[in-house]
Amino acid sequence: MPNLQTMNTLLLCFYQDGIMERVEEIWDEMCKHSVCCRPNVYSYSVLLAAFCDQGKMGEAMRLWDEMRVKEVKPDVMAYNTLIKGLCENREMERAEDIFHQMEMDRIEATCLTFEHLIRGYCEAGDVE
């Protein structure tokens, strides 16, 4: 039986290769075998990135909510992944809400966080 690190590596590799069917299969396996392979914040971040890259923001937000329900605490990588996805999909209001949630969770924003937000506002034509 593979461990969490192995499953996360598979998730990342299939994601990087753009093989989304396999990403979802690996995720399903992880959820089935939660004793040894319960998805952690890294696992969630990879799947968030996959959904965001495909413009599936509804799925990304559903996954974000699931993290909260399952008490998987988002880290800066998870926040930045979702903020980037929202900004790239021109959902600036939601991106700002997630940014405020990040502050409330006392996760320190990085230069990357601000880069995503600034680029998002510029692309949306809202630079004031």
From TrEMBL:
What keywords are annotated for this sequence in UniProt?
Answer: Repeat
Question: Does the record carry Calcium as a key word?
Answer: no
Q: Which Pfam families does the protein's record reference? A: PPR, PPR_2
Under the heading InterPro entries, the entry gives: PPR_P_subfamily (IPR050872), PPR_rpt (IPR002885), TPR-like_helical_dom_sf (IPR011990)
Q: Where are the PPR repeats?
A: 40-74, 75-109
Which family is this sequence assigned to? Answer: Belongs to the PPR family. P subfamily.
Name of protein:
Pentatricopeptide repeat-containing protein
Q: Which organism is it from?
A: Coptis chinensis
Q: What is the lineage of its organism?
A: Eukaryota, Viridiplantae, Streptophyta, Embryophyta, Tracheophyta
